[in-house]
Amino acid sequence: MGKLRVSGGHLAAAVSNAGGLGLVGGGYGDPAWLRAELSRVTEETDSPWGVGLITWSVDRNVLDLALGYRPDAFMLSFGDPRPYASAIKSAGCKLICQVQDVEQARVAREAEADVIVAEGTDAGGHSGARATLPLVPAVVDAVAPTPVVAAGGIADGRGLAAALMLGAHGALIGTRFYASTEALGRDSAKQRIVAAKGEQTARTRVFDIVRGYGWPAVYPGRAIRNRFLERWDGREGELAAALETEHAAYQAAARAGDYETVAVWAGEAVDLIHSVESAATLVARISAEAEARLHAGAGFVQ
Q: Does residue 244 form part of some domain?
C-alpha cells in the first residue's frame, strides 16, 4: 500500500474511525508526501492511527519527521528494525514489525516489537517465500507471548477468522482496502482489482527494475499480470540493459494511468473483491463476518 502511495491520510483516518487501526503507507519516505498525508490523518481522526516505512530505505530524518506527527503506532517492513526501535518506542509509539520468515520474527522480538506481522507470499506487493497459512502459526510459536497479526491473502471475514484460529491476534489487510473509495489509487486501478482473479497475479521483479528501486531479490512483488509483465518476465537482464528507454516510457505510462504497463500490486485474494466500497463498510463487514464464522465454528465441536 505504501509503495504506490495508496494508503494516505484519508484512508488511514477512515479505517481508524471505523474501529480498525489505519496506517499511512509511507513507503520509501518521500518527505513532502508524508507531510501532506500525516497532516491529513491528524485532522480527520482522533482515534489511534499509525504510519509505516520500508526499513531498508529508512532515512533517520524521515523517521523523525513521521514521529513528529505523534502516531500511535509505527510499522517497519523488510529489514532489520533494531537500529530504529529505540527512537520509535521512546517517542511513545507502539512498534509494529512486518516479517516474512521465522528468523526475522525473532529479530523483531529482539527489537521489542509490540506487534509482529507475519506476511505470507499470498500478499500483494513485496513478500518473502513463505505462504500465509503455515507461516502465521510458526511465527506465533516462535515469538510468544508477543502478539502476531496475519497478512497476505486476507480480504474478508473468513480470512480474519482463519487468522485468529491460527493463533494470530488480528489481520493486516491491504489489497481489499486498495479497492476502497478512500484509497488514493486511480479508479481504473481499483477496477482492475475488482475484475482480476487470483491466478492472474504473479510475483515478479520487473516492475522494481524498471522503476529503479533496489529491492533485494528475495522480495519479488505480486501484481496483476499486464502486457509489460508478459513482455519482460524472465528477461530481467535485457530489461536492465534497456533501462534508459524503458524507465522513461514507464514513467509516462504512470502519468497516463496506463495499467497495461504500470503495476497494480494485488494479492491472491482478488477473487473475493467484487466492488469498490467505503473503508467503514469494509471494516464493519469484515468484523461481522469473522464473528459469525467464529460462532458457527463452535457448532463443529458440539
A: no
Residues 6+ apart with CB under 8 A from 41: 8, 9, 10, 12, 13, 16, 22, 24, 49, 69
Percent of the residues in the chain that have a pLDDT greater than 70, as a whole number: 99
**By the 8 A CB rule, do 174 and 193 touch?**
no
> In this predicted model, what pLDDT tens digit does every residue of 134-158 receive, in sequence order?
999 999 999 999 999 999 999 999 9
Contact by Cβ (8 Å): 252, 210: no
Residue 178, classed as helix, strand or coil, is helix
What is the tens place of the pLDDT at every residue in 184-197?
989 999 999 999 99
Total number of domains constituting the chain: 1
Mean pLDDT calculated for residue range 263-267: 97
Q: Which residues contact 95 (CB under 8 A, 6 or more apart)?
A: 73, 74, 76, 81, 85, 88, 89, 111, 112, 113, 114, 115
In a domain? residue 217:
no
* Helix, strand, coil percentages for the chain (3-state, nearest 5): 50, 15, 35
In a domain, 193, yes or no: no
